Amino acid sequence: MYVFKTLNEVRELTENWIREYKEERPHDTLGDLTPWEYRVKHEGPENSNYLCN
Length: 53
Hints:
- The chain is elongated, with a radius of gyration of 16 Å.
- It contains two helices and no strands.
- The protein is mostly helical.
């Protein structure tokens, strides 16, 4: 059971979890790569802004 102080706290935690789940975790459908790793691997570093971040 979780106890939250405000609805905004719940929203912030939810948004962070969704972002992490979609962007940072490896995905089975991407060959167990993160979306960034998959993009770099298939586009090549010369076409990606991955290294600019």
